[in-house]
Specification:
409 residues; alpha/beta; seven-stranded parallel beta sheet
């Protein structure tokens, strides 16, 4: 039996708090609006490093939001310590990746402890596996296991929800949820990536063949288990195209984001009976598009062989990340075109450094939403997306935190 929520000492625990993104997330929590009422802890396998992280937070914010920070010793290879950690809080944030290697054990611990979970994974295989094996039990226990709560995939998932709501407002309440909707997202960003992101990407590339074999099996099992047909959800035409409105080339972007958006569309009726989504990167010059495609293809090929895969992994250490100055220069913009009948709406979601500064903000605000906004959030449980788990309350939080969601035309 899990520890009752009323007896748990912490609202939120950050597992991996001494890592690059984990510490940025801790720094954000130490400065957030709820810092005075928030009870939280830093968790990891090195108590000395955790104490050092707490000291740095205290020096940066003397007397504000740090006196109530606890320290929890937990090791990803020790399931008992993970269960103990999960039983001490309402919500776990984990930044420990690659999640294919280090995620499942913690998900199991959170479900057993009846503790909500958020991560920042962009790894499709991990997300599909967790949904396949743990969605039903998490739903029965009324637990929210929420993947992809960073730049993968908050701006795109919540951006699509924001755009759907704008379209439905134009349609009017008598026809909302009855009309087919299509959305295309166009992404531009400037920033650098960390060693953790690099390791996750190479790991995912190396497993791409086995992933698609597993995914086919999981999708077939899902279809057999469904007692009622779901709404139709698909993609808009995915091809390289020149977009006059941007003066740039739109290239299909093979990230986890469209997968997440489509999962939200299947779960929420306001996306309409027939929903399509397309996901693109905007690039100024066509040769840049072709060079990028060639580069990704090369990485996929090299990651299939253990020797070259290990050499690729040595390029960046898991704890490496951009400097403060590099993060200050970072930015992102996701423009979305939504259509229904003869109606059209443009929206934009924008912010600062996508991979780390804003990702830490998104991750922290997701956990805060689960900890404090349950009465306002959708009453949906299981292995679910940010739009399904938190939806509009999280959009409001992110707007208050400086991420812009706006209708542009």
């Amino acid at each position: 039996m899990s520890t009752p929520l009323s007896k748990r000492p912490y609202d939120i625990v950050i597992f991996g708090a001494t890592g690059y993104t984990g510490f940025l997330t801790a720094k954000y929590l130490s400065q957030c609006n709820e810092r005075k009422k928030l009870s939280w802890a830093l968790a990891g396998r090195s108590p000395s490093k955790l104490e050092e992280a707490k000291r740095k937070l205290t020096e940066a914010n003397p007397g504000v939001g740090t006196n109530n920070i606890g320290i929890i010793n937990a090791d990803i290879n020790d399931a008992k310590s993970l269960r103990s950690m999960a039983e001490q809080c309402h919500v776990i944030i984990t930044t420990v990746g690659p999640y294919l290697h280090y995620g499942e054990t913690l998900v199991k611990a959170c479900i057993e402890a009846e503790t909500h979970y958020v991560d920042l994974t962009g790894e499709p295989e991990f997300v599909d596996a967790i949904a396949h094996y743990y969605d039903e039990v998490a739903e029965k226990k009324r637990i929210k296991i929420v993947n992809s709560c960073g730049f993968d995939s908050i701006p795109h998932d919540l951006g699509a929800l924001f755009t759907v709501n704008a379209i439905n407002q134009l349609i009017g309440k008598d026809h909302a949820e009855k009309e087919s909707i299509s959305i295309e997202g166009f992404v531009r960003a400037g920033g650098t990536f960390s060693g953790g992101t690099w390791h996750s990407a190479i790991t995912q590339f190396s497993r791409i063949r086995s992933f698609y074999e597993k995914k086919k099996h999981w999708d077939q099992a899902k279809k057999r288990s469904q007692s009622t047909p779901q709404r139709r959800v698909g993609t808009t035409p995915m091809r390289i195209q020149y977009k006059k409105e941007f003066g740039r080339w739109a290239c299909p972007l093979p990230t986890i984001d469209p997968q997440v958006v489509r999962r939200s569309a299947r779960a929420r009726s306001n996306y309409g009976p027939n929903f399509k989504y397309g996901h693109f990167a905007l690039v100024k010059e066509l040769p840049t598009v072709l060079a990028g495609l060639a580069g990704i293809s090369s990485l996929v090929a090299l990651s299939q062989v253990s020797l070259t895969r290990n050499l690729l992994l040595k390029i960046k250490a898991p704890g490496d990340g951009p400097t403060d100055a590099e993060r200050e220069k970072g930015w992102f913009s996701v423009k979305m075109l939504g259509k229904a009948r003869d109606l059209m709406v443009w929206t934009e979601i924008s912010g600062g450094d996508p991979g780390y500064g804003e990702t830490a903000k998104m991750l922290a605000e997701s956990a805060l939403c689960l900890a404090f906004d349950q009465e306002l959030s959708p009453k949906t449980y299981g292995v679910i997306t940010p739009a399904v788990a938190m939806g509009e309350p999280l959009i409001g939080r992110l707007e208050n935190a400086g991420i812009k969601f706006q209708i542009t035309s």
